[in-house]
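Milestone 3.1: sequence recovery, worked example.
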């Protein structure tokens, strides 16, 4: 009986220990309470987020898919790389101003198009509209710059065909090259110093030794002939450089804007608001389309330039051959006359 009693008492003690442990777990010790709290909080946040997202979605759908909240504070703490460009107006003009190319903005817009952004006080989200390039231009070569048919596009919304017009007085690179070469030849003849613009002109024409050729023409008294034979080749080089400068500027402008918006963080690291450029994704995508068009034009322009350069060289060589044959014929005729 004593052994049986001790056994029953031991069972009672073990039951008490088990009951105490179950109560402790139910109340939670330090480890268990932390886990339970974390899991409970995660579940609450998850349910709350899902509920909030569903409510926001229902509100937007009920509002004909228009935003129901003003999201201007999404860019409240963005750096200048973002806020200087992504604001109401022409994104290309804003980006060009940041790199010192604002004078090229209207020609850039005519060449590759633009992106117009509107985010006025009454707009809850930014609205982006693509502005097309001007149709009446040759985007495959430097011909417009050569003949003075470069287009410019004013900024109007909505855009129309009336926004496009010819830039300047239509004085292309060919006219400018002739005038500049005649001016340099005159200064060579009168032994006057070249201006800074004339020296830059000589340096820019890398396909021909312009100064030496004009100097030879002055000595031989055939300046007009030299200019007539080389003005197109010189102008072609200048036109290509002008267009290459433009496309390089556009590429740099758009790339700089894209990079600034993509890697933007907060202007103030202590500010709880983070620069949320995702709201600009549509505008950034359209800017990237402009850059792709610029790169396409640059590659095509390079091919057209090389083809035109070869043709101009061929024409110049042929003209030189004709002059040589004409001179030889004259010399032969003179020699024959003297021998008679």
């Amino acid at each position: 009986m004593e052994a049986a009693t001790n056994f029953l008492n031991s069972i009672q003690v073990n039951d008490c220990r088990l009951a105490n442990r179950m109560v402790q777990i139910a109340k939670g010790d330090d480890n268990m309470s932390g886990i339970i709290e974390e899991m409970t909080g995660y579940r609450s946040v998850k349910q709350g987020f899902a509920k909030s997202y569903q409510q926001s979605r229902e509100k937007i759908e009920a509002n004909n898919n228009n935003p129901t909240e003003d999201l201007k504070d999404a860019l409240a703490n963005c750096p200048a790389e973002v806020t200087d460009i992504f604001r109401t107006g022409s994104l290309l003009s804003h980006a060009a101003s940041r790199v010192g190319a604002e004078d090229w903005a209207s020609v850039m817009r005519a060449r590759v198009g633009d992106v117009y952004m509107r985010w006025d006080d009454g707009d809850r989200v930014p609205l982006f509209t693509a502005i097309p390039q001007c149709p009446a231009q040759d985007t495959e070569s430097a011909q417009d710059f050569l003949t003075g048919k470069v287009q410019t596009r004013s900024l109007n919304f909505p855009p129309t065909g009336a926004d496009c017009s010819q830039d300047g007085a239509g004085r292309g690179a060919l006219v400018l090259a002739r005038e500049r070469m005649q001016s340099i030849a005159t200064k060579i003849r009168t032994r006057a110093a070249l201006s800074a613009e004339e020296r830059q002109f000589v340096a820019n024409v890398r396909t021909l030794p312009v100064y030496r050729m004009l100097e030879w023409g002055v000595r031989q008294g055939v300046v007009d002939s030299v200019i007539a034979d080389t003005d197109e080749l010189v102008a072609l080089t200048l036109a290509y450089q002008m267009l290459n400068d433009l496309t390089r500027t556009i590429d740099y402008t758009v790339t700089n804007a894209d990079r600034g918006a993509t890697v933007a963080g907060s202007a103030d690291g202590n500010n709880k608001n983070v620069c949320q450029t995702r709201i600009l994704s549509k505008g950034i995508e359209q800017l990237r389309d402009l850059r792709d068009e610029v790169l396409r034009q640059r590659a095509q322009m390079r091919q057209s330039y090389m083809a035109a350069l070869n043709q101009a060289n061929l024409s110049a060589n042929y003209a030189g051959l004709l002059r040589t044959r004409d001179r030889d014929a004259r010399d032969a005729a003179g020699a024959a006359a003297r021998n008679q």
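The radius of gyration is 38 Å. The chain has eleven helices and five strands.
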